[in-house]
Amino acid sequence: MEAGGRVRLMDVWVGVRDPRQAKKVEHDLVEMLVVAVCAVLSGSDGFVEIEVWAKEKLDWLRQYLKLEHGIPCHDTFGRVFAAIDPEEFGAAFLRWVGQVVPTLRREEVVAIDGKTSRRSGKAGATPLHLVSAFAAQAGVVLGQRATAAKSNEKTAIPELLTTLALEGCIVTIDAMGTQPNIARAIRDRGADYVLAVKDNQPTLAESIEDFVSAFDAAPERTPHRFHEVVEKDHGRLEVRRCHVFDQLDCLHAPERWPDQRSFAMITSERTIGGKTSVERRYYLSSLAPDAERMNRVVRQHWRVENSLHW
To answer: Which of 8, 123, 145, 238 has the most beta carbons within 10 angstroms of its beta carbon?
Structure first.
């Protein structure tokens, strides 16, 4: 079973140890993992759907797999996946993805964001929170890390970054990940960063707001770059205005942010059903001041909500 005639999915799982007692094994572990991955890639959601899909595709699967005892039941799939080492499985899967997914293009936007699965786990248990790295243009998840709570994103993000090949990419993160050590980790991977600034960095946010207040009072006196995008869709009108600045000495402790070259203000004005709302967001970046690029990068970051989380 190959991708592009080169990559054998069978070979990917050899390093995943089988925790079962050999004498009691009826279904080969590698074959089960291949079946499960193929089923999920085909749209199956959960072990019951994996079993149903595999039984429907049994003749096709036997072109590549022996499956001497047929397709395991969904309970067997569940027990096996609960028993194998998730780190071993994840590392093997990412190796395969790295082979079959084309190399990320330069300036690919990699959006890192967390999402809590409200229905995960048993009743009363802490729900699963995943931090994902999503290549917005390629439309693929590059990696994930599970955390016990949203507050742990600050430790999960650096761990996730060390597993990714990001040279030439632009990494975008919401406010929880706006930390100097995370900015350094991104730069160490050869990527640029665009980091949202909110109340998680209160002194920095206040310094940006003070700068913006002075800019609003006399914009012609402050050098800046500007770009505007207007979008109309199904009765919704959105105007996104991006102002980018390079007056870093006006910010609080700019030396904390490695290789910072600009900061930005993006104003989103949305009109729906005759009602208009306005929102401003602020960003730090290692990118050179370029309003059109900044507007595009921030817009692509939010694809993680529509293309991944939902």
So the answer is: 145
CB neighbours of residue 310 within 10 Å: 7
pTM of whole model > 0.90? no
Residue type for position 305: E
- CA–CA gap between residue 184 and residue 161 (Å, rounded): 11
Tell me the backbone φ, ψ of residue 191, rounded to 5 degrees.
-115, 165
- Measuring CA to CA, how many Å separate 231 from each of 109, 137, 220, 291? 21, 19, 27, 17
Q: Residue 164 has which token pair?
A: 């990714």
Q: How far apart are CA 207 and CA 223, in angstroms?
A: 17
Q: Contact, 108 vs 129, CB < 8 A?
A: no
Distance CA 303, CA 132 (A): 13
Q: How do residues 165-224 score in pLDDT, each as one tens digit?
A: 888 999 999 988 999 999 999 999 999 999 999 988 999 999 999 999 999 999 999 999
Residue 99 has which token pair? 């082979």
Integer Cα distance of 12 and 16 in angstroms: 9
Q: Are 264 and 244 in contact (CB under 8 A)?
A: yes
Other C-beta atoms lying within 10 Å of the C-beta of residue 82: 9
**CA distance readout (Å), 260 to 27, 74, 249, 257, 296:** 54, 51, 11, 6, 19
Q: Are strands 225-233 and 236-245 parallel, antiparallel or unpaired?
A: antiparallel
Q: Which residue(s) pair with 237 in the sheet? A: 232, 271
pLDDT tens digit sequence for 254-298: 999 999 999 999 999 999 988 999 999 999 999 999 999 999 999
Question: What secondary structure, in 3-state letters, does 80-122 show?
Answer: HHHHCCHHHHHHHHHHHHHHHCCCCCCCCEEEEEEEEECCCCC
Domain residue extents for the chain: 2-100, 197-309
